[in-house]
Specification:
It is built from 15 helices and seven strands. It has 292 residues and is of the alpha+beta class.
Length: 292
Amino acid sequence: MSEHNDAYYDLKPEKDGKIDSWDDLLGFYRKSEGSSWKRRWVFRGEKDGSWKLETTLERAISRQCECSFDKEAERWEYRLLRQFQRIAPMFLPQPPGKDNWIEWLALLRHHGGPARLLDWTYSFLIAAFQAIEKSDDGQDSAIWALDVDWWKEEVMKQIPELAKIRGQEDPHSEAEFELLKTLKGRSGIWPVNPFRLNERLQSQQGVFLMPLDVSKSFMDNLINLASPTDARVHLWKIIIRSSRTLRKQCLTELQRMNIQNQTLFRGLDGLAKDLENQMLMPELFEGIGPKI
């Protein structure tokens, strides 16, 4: 991550700023929950602690296109969503209406496509699972924590039309989504969820954060909204020192809390994903083996 973006988080854990045990992780969560997190925070787990906050649309344009993101992001968002809308209804029993922009973006993201929506969760422990599950030995993972109410208030100071709609309508209203679609050149991030939640959003306590200016990166939308001094109080990056021992500790404890792939990705997908994690817990297979 560049030095420019480092100003936007603060390492809160004690010791050397890295969590290296389940007790550290749970202790940090409980300590923080009793103070700063009385407001509404959201969390995102990353298997690689060096990664910045970046949408799948940003990554796709960077990997696949020989073009400038700021000049082509809006064009590519339109093209990709239009293509998805043309073909996806063949596989959907009840597709969204063509003008239901946010629900289509959420559906595209749900199925792994490039979109400006970035996945977060209201659950610190779900984010911890997502950070630790696929981490590699010796490679730090991370949990991002963002004070969503504070950032939303900063946006409404600069875009009073949003504040007006929020005062008149329920959250995630059609009027709100229509206004968000028209905002060009207005920086900031905004929490969105389609009115019809899918099963995965519900089970993961999920929410999307959307950069308002699609022609700028997620981090630039944050940087243009608030000063580093203000922002670092409301956006943290908690570094976790990854190892097999830590993965075993954390995944075992989280499984006891029913936080595992089978509950986050219901059905066969979640079951299959959990099989590799269960290899860290050989006691689950005691006495089971091929007959020789």
